[in-house]
Amino acid sequence: MRVSKAVKVGNVIIGGGAPVSVQSMLNTPSADTPACLAQARVLEGAGCDIIRLAVPDMESVRTVGVLKEEIKAPIVADIHFDYRLALESAAAGADKIRINPGNIGPDDRVRAVAAACRQRGIPIRIGVNSGSLEKEILAKYGSPTPEALVESALAHAALLEKHDFNDIIISIKSSDVARTVRAYELIAERCGYPLHIGVTEAGTERMGLIKSAAGIGSLLLRGIGDTIRVSLTAPPLSEVYAGIDILRACGVRGGVKIISCPTCGRTKIDLIPLANEIERLLAGCAADISVAVMGCAVNGPGEAREADVGVAGGDGCALIFKKGEVIRKADERDVISELMKEIRAITDG
Ligand code: SF4
Question: pTM higher than 0.90, yes or no?
């Protein structure tokens, strides 16, 4: 596990061994404050730990202020080029500023942003993407290689370090999974800043999720990554669900784990809708338990020995089992209620 510097973003800590947080970004027009607020509430309710808002103009700064009043999750102001928007967002209460200091002009502007953030205890995220690398770095490396991404991110960080500003979080994303993973591996060795990880512009909901799971997952399993964003061409709510599921799949966040078999010619129960329904019913359950949903009694309980509780299809019945041991039979029609009864007994007890 890589140990990074702990950076405070509102009521959430990023890095320093804190739980890996899930972020998403509003896609409502930033100047439409009521729409942004409504979407932020939905994301917060779904478990989004940190909410980002694009701030392209002064009108949008007002939204930052309103979100800060109404939403408990930290609010990040995402700014391109205009340092005055960073200053105004900081004054409006933003919990983090995403800006690349190398893109905002002369050093006195960098100093002003660093001073405003330091005064309010706000960190800055530097976000380097392969599509927006500086011309000189691109010329030096010939293409947006992992080394080029790292050089760019560290150069941006140096501009802040020059002003003794170190509350920095770094992201270096590419839409290519292998390049993203390599870039994060390199920067993890080169600095102690917490890392915001993700595959950028990963694609539509299905392929984007697969690319994100491959990229974010392989980094998390190496102990790299302090906060994540799954970037999907889909509603932000999908990004939040995907992010939480990736954390669970990698074992870095608890919650219900469904173990279900792929079905085969031995399947004795209508398993696919059953597994989906059980997953749906347990979606809001915070208990750290595993639940097996298996197609047959021959292999089911044995294959799902690790599960705390489970169900397996039998001949005209369903078998309820715990830790691989069958505890009783249930009528196939009652299988969901019987299973839920056992789950409640575990989670309430
Ligand atoms: Fe087939 Fe039974 Fe294995 Fe499911 S648990 S895949 S039904 S053998």
Answer: yes
